[in-house]
Write a structure and sequence with these properties.
Elements: E1 5-14, H1 20-29, E2 35-36, E3 49-50, H2 57-64, H3 74-89, E4 100-105, H4 111-114, H5 118-121, H6 125-129, H7 137-147, E5 152-156, H8 162-175, E6 181-188, H9 192-200, E7 224-232, H10 233-238, E8 245-254, H11 267-279, E9 289-291, H12 298-312, E10 319-320, H13 323-326, H14 333-347, E11 349-350, E12 372-373, E13 378-384, E14 389-396
Parallel strand pairs: 4-5, 4-6, 9-10, 9-13
Antiparallel strand pairs: 1-7, 1-8, 2-3, 6-7, 8-14, 11-12, 13-14
Amino acid sequence: MTEGVVVTGMGIVSCIGFNVDETLHSLMIGKTGIGKISILDSIHRDEFVLGEIKLTQKELMEKLGVDLNLPWTRTALLGVWAARQAYQSAGLSTNSGKRIGLVSASTVGGMDRSELYYKDFLTDAIRKNHIDTHHAGNSTEMIADDLNIHDYLTTISTACSSSLNSIMFGARLLRHNLLDAVIVGGTDALSRFTLNGFNTLMILDHEHCRPFDATRRGLNLGEGAGYLVLERTSDALAGKKQVIAQVAGYANANDAFHQTASSDNGEGPFLAMQRAVAKAGITAQDIDYINVHGTGTDNNDLTEGVAMKRLFGDQVPPFSSTKAFTGHTLGATGVIESIISILSMNNDKVFPNINFKEVIEEINLVPVSQLTDLHINHVLTNSFGFGGNDSSVVFSKVPSNISGL
């Protein structure tokens, strides 16, 4: 295997599992985490279904054993949960002498705490100007402090492509020898602000979402966090690390077509996929499976399908959206689906696009709707954000003679 960037650790928490093994189990048995709202305090409690993690703020803090006196946001707590898993599974240590960094993504940031003070905004200027947990970087700083990482940390917030962009940036930091290991990923918690905002956009489904289905009516929001540990191939092998996957190719494109919609010809998604495949040094025909962005909204699924047909022609690889399992976790969705893609590749399974029944007439593409055996060497995962910030990453299987598989 030539020098490159590889994955040596993973951590995840979402409504379908508190770790990698639980996540895999839910995907294998087709268990969705979408359901009635029971944790989020919202006037829409009986109107929508969400991908909630069924633990309160207090229960999360107690489970993680964090300092209860610190101003924890739910976003930061979920991030700590997943980042600890990734850190430990990769065998990292801040006493190793290695330069370790953290590139974390978030869209909601600390909004779950900020909105508690909504009424105070009208009367208390001091409170309004001193909510330190509000910004997206707060969760990054708290995760870094929890893991004692201080060599490098930064936050990426590019809507739904945020955590795929964190993977790309982390890979570049390694390729330029600025770090020896980097934890990349993202975290986002549900909040009333998010639910109300997406409801205003009229892109929420009142029922379970149906990605790539002709009857789709919108997305289901979810929450969660996921992190990967990336290292250079030579360093991972020298350290006899478990090598889980190769980060083979990646690309970001921005068509800037509309604030919340993709262009009719899928220009941004097409360019992101095309360039990611090219950077991986393979052809479009070498992609064995696509974990699509597949939100269940009218615009995304149609334009993503158009973009796939532009790139793959009549030979679109098997594809599925896993958002009907987890919900759309916004800034965390790219890394959560990257972990799912790696699990798919390493287990030679395509996890199903559940709830699919009727093909979209304009694109005539049928996702994989049942758990399917498939030998996978290269998987492409997509995350497309508001404003046309579109990202794709190719993960490739590690050869059998490499440690860990």
